[in-house]
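Why show two proteins at once? Because comparison is the fastest way to build intuition. When a single record is shown, students tend to memorize it. When two are placed side by side, the eye starts asking what differs. So, the first record is below.
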Amino acid sequence: MRSFDLAPLYRATVGFDRVADLMDRVLASDVAQPTYPPYNIEKTAENAYRISVAVAGFTAEELTVEVKDGTLHVAARKPEDDATRTYLHRGIATRAFERRFALADHVRVTGATHDLGMLHIDLVRETPEALKPRRIEIARPTDIDATAVSAPAVQ
């Protein structure tokens, strides 16, 4: 088992708190990661993603998808089972669950669909205009206003 000390990262950087917290969570080995329900994360375009969660046995009304504090929360809760049913074998897991996904900056959820026992959550990364590269026009001396570039007055 390896242990990483991220204290130098906290001391030497400003504004990278989310990255450091994410690394802390990923490297924490004492917390068991849930395996239910199974899910896929796929890249559907250059700035588009889809999370597909296997939710067999749940209806759309029993599922909850919400985003808060940069984290996508997917949860399901089944109402109390009918006491009149007697199962000889119960192999379909319909137990309640909550799954969390950390979202990067500027990633937002565009929609969710429930189809054939799968919950599909579509996400897109939208880079703000201020962060996009922009070309700066370089002015030539003939383009500069002659009054703006005048020699200082000699006294």
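Second record. Ask yourself what differs from the first in the token line.
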Amino acid sequence: MTGLRGRDSSPGSIRDRAAAVQSTQTGRSAHARRRAWIPGWLRAIFFLPAAPKPMAHLDPNHVATSARQMARPARKSPVDWLGLASTAGFAASGGSAGDGVSLSTSLARIGRRFLPKEPRRREVLAVLTLLIAASLISVTGPVSQAGATTATPDAGIAAGDVTPEPTDAAGTETPAPPDPITPEPTDTSTPKPTSKPAPPKKVTPKPLVVRTFVALGDSLTAWPNTPWPTRLDAQDAGLRLVKNAGVPGNTTAQMRARLARDVYAYHPNVLFVLGGTNDLGLGISGSATLANLRAIIVGAKSQKIAVILLLVPPDSYISMGPKISALNRAIIALANAQRILYVDIHAPLTNGNGVYFPKFTSDGLHFSDLGAQTVANTIRYRIRRIGL
């Protein structure tokens, strides 16, 4: 206890001793702090030793020992390393060691003068230095590559293989003669004749089909001197008259009786039937006239003969007009029922009252030459429309 009391343990003396120790340690660690300005990632890049760290102490009252450094070998800053490297190079080149030491000291002083003292600024300076260096490398890299010569195929040719250009006596180069120009061959062959357009194809006319016919009737078919059947044969090459079976004064019943002798015996292709005028003059009923005409049609069809009915022509007497019109309506109905062709020769020959035009009749009943021609023209126009 006495030994302990002999020591000054007052609070003031303890603070004095701690301040003295702290000042001593502060002077010792100043150099360590200067060496710790380089960050760890930069030390790892340049393979520099790690910065010294203060010892950890759990008791914050031990101020004297809180700033003590861990036992580590002495390390030099990058500026010191630069000075040593320059000293070694200077000594290797033949200089004295004293001169090298003075050089290293001067370089160290210059480096410390320009380096910032705060660690944060030093880190910023180091980062900027690296960025500038990287920029210079990226800029100078392509330039150096561009300056490099690329080997060309001509570079491998020996100097002896190159033939010098001819020169004249004065030493100037004589221009080489131009290459001879070979004229392009001209086409001297005989020009090919242009192909003529193909001649138009000749349309082969269809062979003319001639159909024979028989005209069955009364005096309107038999008269005048050149009746309508003869005129129809003359103007239509496709029709040939084989029998004019017109008998003056015949009724439809008499015409029916002559079918075998005057029609079937000639085997015609077409049969023209004109009857009914004498039936009206004799007072025969219309039903009897139609029955005879129907029998003629059926008989001709059985012989495979095409039948064409002609309507009754007009008369010069006005009283006959209604009778003729009624019979013609019945003939049209019969033709439609039997599905055969009929030709209206009544309309072209009469006026609005159902009476003959005088020019178409010779006596008020029979056809004149102009009347016969008009009938032939009407029949021909009608059958041509159906392709007969």
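One difference worth noting in the second protein: Residues 214 and 243 are 5 Å apart (CA to CA).
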